[in-house]
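Reviewers of the previous submission asked for a worked example of the structure-prediction workflow described in the proposal, so we include one complete record here. The input consisted solely of the amino acid sequence. No template or homolog information was supplied to the procedure at any stage.
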Amino acid sequence: MNAQKRYEIFSRLRDHNPTPTTELHWHTPFELLTAVLLSAQATDVGVNKATARLFPIANTPQGILDLGIDGLKDKIKTIGLYNSKADNLMKTCHLLLERHGGEVPDTREALEALPGVGRKTANVILNTAFGQPTMAVDTHIFRVANRTRIAPGKNVLEVEQKLMRHVPKDFLHDAHHWLILHGRYTCVARKPRCGSCVIEDLCEYKDKTEIE
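From that input alone, the workflow returned the following structure tokens.
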């Protein structure tokens, strides 16, 4: 895929959705970090239901610690893997208070030092909370990047690195949101809805469907 085609793809995605953002509900960097930590193997809808119960009571590191591990688990027990997620969140809150004055850090190194925070989570926080041009490659982005041939790669890191090189700078800040939403609602895993895709004629996927 050439640079001109990539530019047109992201131009159309921007025209279709000028201000994309995460579907997780958050107001502060700590709320976003909490929501992302809870989102592993869970839907955004499910996480939002849990944080709607949690955040009015505890939406700061100290607030989570004051709630206690049992209180935290009770608020997020509808989410898969809630026991381990609660443990990681409590440990993260301790470290945020000890090392960062209760604030979420804005560097990859500091973020990835927090329990439960890997490269993808750090990229989400850096991009969505702090406006940095990062690419949080999840299963949706991995699929879309390979299927369309925008940035094919054998693993998530390779796809991330190719996207960072090949996505035009004009679109880099919002690109991962466009790609996630495109993979979630149009370029779905089993039968992509090519018939209603705004980039169908630019996509290099060989097995297009007529599903709308």
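The chain has ten helices and no strands. We consider this example representative of the routine output the project will generate in years two and three.
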